[in-house]
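Re: duplicated header lines in exported structure tokens

Our pipeline writes sequence and tokens for each protein into one text file. With two proteins the header for the second block appears twice in some exports. Here is an export where it did not happen, for reference. First protein block:
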Amino acid sequence: MTGLGELLREAREAKGYSLDDLQSITKIQKRYLSGIEKEDYSSMPGAFYARAFIKQYAEAVDLDPQEILSLYKEEHPSPEAEAEEEVTPLRSRHRRVRSNNAMKQMMPKLFFAIIIIAIVVIIALLMKWTMNGKGENSPVDDLPEDNKVTVQQKEPPKPPVVEEEPKEEPEEEPEEPVMEQKVEVVSVAGDTTTYRLSEAEQFKLRIELSGESWVSVLTDNQEELTPGGAAVLKDGDVVDLDVTDQSQIRIRLGRTNDAKVFINDKELPYELERVDQTIYIQFEK
């Protein structure tokens, strides 16, 4: 035991809050708050949520959240890694392609046509040879006009035209459905709102300024991501970051009425009406 739960409980009682009161303030379920005071985190969905709930509890009773979290980290140096489950719908189709060999279908008909042509040519040559033989034995001029034989040669029949069967075109595969990102409110406490981004392939953050405002963007490891460091930005300034590799970021805004936050080009609505706000965004990959 680190004494973390006792510190929080004493601070809560000093404020005159019951667990029900604290549940209304932080929007954290009473059983989680009780578990924090007992330092029993087994009922919580994971180490990430345990740290987030402890931080919100500390802020609600005016304790330094970083000092309280340091006590938690003494007993839990390696936070439980949340399993990432990536569901990618896969569809496989087996396509049967029918192969038609036009030459194989044409060969029997072509062979038959060649035989017919050969027979006709042979008959024509025999008739011509017969006529030439008769001409040598008896002159044609001596025969009467009525006995002259006229041979008409018939044109060989044209080979039949073989029509090729149309080839089947391959079926077009259906397009894969496009995922629609979800942004949900996890909790609200004091000036802090925690959101969860899910069903998104990337996490791109943009902050647009329409006036002067303090802007700070921190990673879960307290690394400042704002170009040039946290500072007061002016009208027209834009902070554009790709934080896909982060599981959580913290945004601190001095004047929300002069700053708009966009997640993957979609504006994030503020849950609170406060001018200065702290925003946590969790990214579930």
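Second protein block, exported in the same file:
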Amino acid sequence: MQPTPPFLTKVVQLHETFNVRFGVMLVGPTGGGKSAAAAALRRARTDLREAGHPDPAHQVTHLWAVNPKSVKMGELYGEYNQLTNEWQDGIASSLIRAAVADASPHHHWVLFDGPVDAIWVENMNTVLDDNCMLCLPNGERIKLDAVRMRMLFEVSDLAVASPATVSRCGMVYVPSEDLGWRPFVQSWLDGLPSAHAVGRESDPLAARADGEPPASRTPSRSVSRCMSYARSATMTPMPTIDAEPYSDELEEFVMSLFERFVDPLLEHVRKHCRSAVLSCDINLVTSCARLFEAHTHPRNGLPLPKDNDPLEDHTRVALQYIFAYCAVWGIGGNVDAQSLEAFDAFARQLFDGTANFPAGAGTVFDFRLDPSRNYAFSSWQDLVPAFVYRPQAPYFSILVHTVDTVRVSVALEACLSVSRPALLSGASGVGKSAIVLDLLERLARGGGALGGGGG
């Protein structure tokens, strides 16, 4: 996180509000920096205590987070087991009980990250008033420490919050405009050499694949196939790349691409397109950056200048095409089918002269990066393999590749190559599971997504 003045202002406001209120609500849209502000303040207090600051208000601070809408009321506050009539503590009650029982001077913040509504938050009213008392359904009352503990709520809005709850809390509004996407991109650029240096030993996919499913659950046949392919695909260690920092000229050039193209693309998507899945600006920019991270990885054969090495002209051209491809998929990949034509026309015009998309039939999504042509665009059709029928293959495991399956497979492989999650969204029966299983099977055999045509 970059220490921008608006962000630091929100951290200070949160600190000051904590000094006068037991409960605080961080209000603002997703991606605005609410979690980052709370984490920064927690770390600052902890660091000041470890540095020996004389103010007793600065103590080692622990943050306990729970999503209240991800569980039932009984799982949140506790309930009686209907079979044994025994009391079972809930997540929130367990966290609060453990914080109260801590005899050290450490401070504890219990964070409720999710919508505030009367279904669950009314039970917190006695906690947020002067009593600082959590009343459980079994009649137990837990007295909270008003000095060492605080309640923190992260919400996008207060549309369904009751006046009784709002009046008991301090408010800190965190608008997304204060942070924007630029601090994220700068932090991402600063860490790009380290991200490119990650090897198999720190690959979370490999760690997951090496483990066994819980004994209490029997995986389905499709899940077993996925885990089998994932284990095989991660058996071969990935080479660890030197984490020597990239040149300042390279970072400035990449940042200039973001500065030039991201805002116009975001504005067009918000004003003239409809999204298939609800998203925020920072999410779209993050997707663009992660794809760029994957396609510029040293294993793809594109040498990036280190330290004071000059940025060659052919590398600049390649980076422009890679960025155009990643911006189209990262920012525009979420638009629905009815918006594709408008987005295609706008993207072609925007990148004209920087990364020219081939004229003719097809949208900007119908072209891939071609490493053999210095990452200029070529058609996905060139990568569609000829169908070979295997008589011994089960019927439902047969996948006939098309342009759509190829480009989705390449995009998935790009995400997996840098250990980033991917979400496939679509109606039932369109081939999501088939594409994933086919990709994992290819990776298990030591190959890639149909030759890795994405770059």
